Amino acid sequence: MSDFILITGDKAMFNPTFGQAIVTVRPGDLIGTGKDKINQKPVCVDGDEKKVIVPGCPYMTPQYSIPGVGILSIESLAGNQKAKKTKSGGKPMLLKGATFKAKFQVMVPAQQPNIPSPIPDATPHYTGTGTFMSMNVKIKGT
Predict the structure, then answer these.
(1) Which residues contact 4 (CB under 8 A, 6 or more apart)?
(2) How far, in Å, CA of 37 to CA of 44, rounded?
(3) Average confidence (pLDDT) over 18-29
(4) The pTM is what?
(5) DSSP tag of 118
(6) DSSP at 63
(7) Strand 119-120 to 111-112 pairing
């Protein structure tokens, strides 16, 4: 099944629901390290998704009403997001595909108001999903 090849400047769009946590998401930027180019931009290859990091994202949960802050990243790609045949520099190219697994790493825990001191969220990370938004709408890989 062919799909659009991801290139430098494409976006990782995170869904705001991470289990119990609701995250104020921002897109992450992809930076391709492939040898080939599309629209004068390097293609993204296997491993480039690991460099997508979005710090400083606020979050809350139903139990913790004082917001906390964390970092968004891509945990793993779906099977249809890594080309089986199309390679650049020997590495599989990344494809738009369906939905990737995302991770939200808590840096400053959300808190529940309490006297004498607030109770922090004990969950170190949450799992969610996201999709890619590509500027390449012409060239596909398989």
Answers:
(1) 95, 96, 134, 136, 137, 138, 139, 140, 141
(2) 9
(3) 98
(4) 0.94
(5) P
(6) S
(7) antiparallel
